[in-house]
Amino acid sequence: MNKVFLAGRLKIKPDVAYTPKGGKILKFPLWVEDDGFIIDVVYLDRQGIRDFAGMMGTTVMVSGALTKSKDREGTFTCKAHKIIWMEE
User: Fold this and answer.
1) Which helix H or strand E contains 30, and what residues bound it?
2) 51 CB contacts (<8 Å, ≥6 apart)?
3) Is the dihedral of CA 10, 5, 50, 40 positive or negative?
4) How far apart are CA 62 and CA 49, in angstroms?
């Protein structure tokens, strides 16, 4: 089973793309402070996530699966199933 939970900071505004059927896809790097690394997150928005204006620096938790990155050989992407906004 491949399931991960990662908590980190949203450092930049996510890129938003749309599927042919109108679904929203979010792509963003997640800065995991505890271990000092960045992982790319891809999320098909099923939660109706609001606008990201003013959300930079916010802590989020993502749950999902690790997949091999298509962009960079030897790296991984988190294909998120859920995003949880953490309160400071």
Assistant:
1) strand 24-32
2) none
3) positive
4) 13
| Pairing assessment for the beta strands 59-68 and 76-85 based on DSSP bridges | antiparallel
Q: Which amino acid is at 23?
A: G
Buried b (16+ CB within 10 A) or exposed e, 14-48: beeeeeeeeebebebebbeeeeeeebbbbbeeeee
C-beta neighbour count of 58 within 10 angstroms: 14
Tell whether the torsion through CA atoms of 15, 19, 22 and 26 is positive or negative: negative
Q: Which amino acid is at 33?
A: E
Tokens of 25: 């896809």
Give the chain's domains with CATH numbers: 4-85 (2.40.50.140)
Residue 31 pLDDT class (50, 70, 90 cuts)? very high
Taking residues 19-24, report their average pLDDT.
88
